[in-house]
Amino acid sequence: MKLLLRHSIGISKKYVYLISILFSLVVMLKTTISESKESFNISIKFIVFFTTNYFFWAVLIESVYGAVKPLQIGSGFTRKMIFTAFLNLLLICTLHLIISNVVYGIYLIFIANQSFWGFLTDLQIAIPSAYISRVFDFLIIGALLKLMETYRSYQQKQLKVLELENQLHLSQLATLRSQLDPHFLFNTLHTLNSLIGFDDKKARSIVIKMTHLLRKMLNEKNRHIITLEEEIEYFKNYLAIEQERFNDRLLVIYNLEETTKSLEVPALVLQPLIENAFKHGIALIEGKCEIHLITKLDGNKLSISLSNTKPTQGKISTIASTKVGLKNLESRLSQLFPDNFEICIDDTEKLYTITIILIFDRIP
User: Fold this and answer.
1) Quick check: 275 and 316 in contact, CB under 8 A?
2) pLDDT tens track for 174-206
């Protein structure tokens, strides 16, 4: 258990101190005005009291943030987290109470000429209400810091999305040309050529499916974030055309958790995986072959796994993989999920599996 950890709030200390002093003056003026006409000494006492109080909150603000930062809304709170935050609250409030009253007591005894025992008597009476007041101060400051953290996180995400959209806009034509693997287009056209005049019904079916696929791509070219359900629908359209080519040799198995379908993922996140599966795996197999798509949600971690049957040793592709598709995918994910994603590869004798793991700040 770690107590009194400090965490930077991302604002220069001099501005924090300035804000605390200005706020204390505002509170002091409001309090002085609310009093009926008191002496000037009372006003000076208010200045020292409120300035000391809020100035030391400024000194301790990084400790307050360190106490509330682990409490992430939407991620759930463990008993240990709540207990640690509660202990931090008690320690910080106690520390603030001691320091601020020592400074205030020095002023009262040595400048305002109050007796030491008189100060102690007043302090004993005031301690319960003063401690409760500091607890409320802690809660208010902690809530403001969490709001600031949420707003800052939202701004960072918006900037990353804008950066991604800008990059996609600059490469829009290149993206449209590369969205469908040339091998896929060539093989589809070759299949159509062989079917025309022999099996016109199947040829028409392939043309219709290809039309739907291309229309979907063009209609959604400006959408860079889509739900996993929409991405899988595109994936199924792609595979439907491939299954026409492979007839009954290709078996596609889906194991999709219902809770994963509404999660948002980058558009075409599965494209490089499926193209790689066909180019270096399925297309080289003469017999039965399989593709498995599995989605799982574990806490705030979404895993998307695509597995394909591998060809025998003698049939392995001699074309060296440049892994450009995977590199581009990794670049896109690093912008939308910085330090919150993984791409894992499991290459066994009979099966090749790529797993994408996305870690969400919160699950809707």
Assistant:
1) no
2) 454 455 556 567 767 777 777 787 778 878 887
